[in-house]
Design brief:
Its main location: membrane. The chain starts with a helix and ends in an 8-residue tail after the last helix. The protein has helices at about 1-30, 35-40, 45-55, 60-75, 85-120, 125-140, 145-160, 175-205, 210-215, 220-235, 235-250, 255-260, 265-275, 280-305. It is an all-alpha fold.
Amino acid sequence: MARFLLLRTLSLAASLLAASLVIFAAIEVVPGDPASYMLGMNAAPDTVAALRDQLGLNEPLGWRYLHWLAGLLQGDFGISYTYKTPVSGLIAERLALSAPLAGLALILSTALALPAGLIAAARRGKGADLAVTGLAQIGIAVPNFWFAMMLVALFALRWQLLPAGGFPGWAHPAAALRALILPAIALALPQAAILARILRSALIEAMAQDYIRTARAKGLSRRAALTRHALRNALIPVLTVLGMQFSFLLAGAIIIENVFYLPGLGRLIFQAITQRDLIVVESAVMLLVVAVIVVSFVTDLAYALVDPRLRRPA
């Protein structure tokens, strides 16, 4: 187990370093000058040059990368060009909304997908299976922003049960949770469809294994074999999807946050891109990549707990 942890930790560090290089290089080659954007098209060249020097944009790329990386390691993400405040504060403020939204959407998608996948696998080829797979196909095909608009039209405009958008802040917890219900459902439905289909396929494959046949031959019912034995072995692909889903929900909520006018991390990245606020884009995207890599690392550890064979040296 110690060797397994060491190898995964080294892989984690190498992935983070490679990601920081790619993100910095990709953001720096994007056309457009932040100083020119901030001062306007009619700004004097010497004024633009002075602002570029003040922002550190005239320094060599290699030095700027090392300075940025050192700041990340110390928790200092720099100062936003646009907001004139520390980027770490901006990201923390927006994460206070985006992280609970992603967590709520993940809980909803799991709560919907697990029973749906179990029912579909237990009733393979029957009406319940066809209904689950059909609904899952629709959920995968339809984009989440369409679900968002339909939810707003029904629950906010027609029935007036939930707010159509905006976020009152966590000073009012009940109102804040009500504001996140529709966005969370819109994010959760496509992910629940994906997870349900993967769980169904994994359970059907597990039910065809020899150890299930042996358990059935000893008198164990199909339902008991499904829940006691097949489900545990079907969890590995499910854990993979769950890890990817949380990262996607955290990073991929830009459209949903704009539909519901939520001041989250995705909307911050969108605004920073349009304003050419490079330091915000670099730091926020790097944070999302860190979340993806760390979740993958935790998922690998979960694999080892579910399947002890993965802990053995090759």
